[in-house]
Write a structure and sequence with these properties.
40% strand; 7 strands; 1 helix; alpha+beta; Arylsulfatase, C-terminal domain
């Protein structure tokens, strides 16, 4: 699996635990939008797109199906977030491309 074209948009509400929104292109064929980067007591983590159900719970719309893919998403997106907002980098730098083998 190739994760590329990660785009990060900072969330402007400074009082929110949501620090940014991200999108990612998977295998140059599928784009996932509305990925949240959230700050918790244990640091930053990635929350996949979800919707609120009628009973008030949240249901993921899309999510990694194994631990390796989940770890890869977290690493790639949080790294890009840190690069975008904590380091001074050129906007001409291309997004990092990461690959992992999907398990059947």
């Amino acid at each position: 699996m190739l994760i590329s074209e990660i785009k990060i948009k900072k969330h402007e509400n400074k009082d929110s635990k949501i620090k940014a929104f991200a999108s990612a292109l998977i295998d140059n064929n599928i784009r996932i939008n509305d990925i949240k980067i959230i700050e918790s007591e244990n640091g930053l983590f990635v929350a996949m797109p979800s919707r609120k159900t009628l009973d008030g719970n949240f249901l993921n719309i899309v999510h990694p199906v194994n631990t390796e893919t989940n770890a890869l998403f977290n690493e790639v997106i949080i790294t890009e977030y840190n690069k975008s907002f904590n380091e001074k980098t050129s906007e001409k730098d291309p997004p990092k491309k990461r690959t992992t083998k999907a398990k059947d």
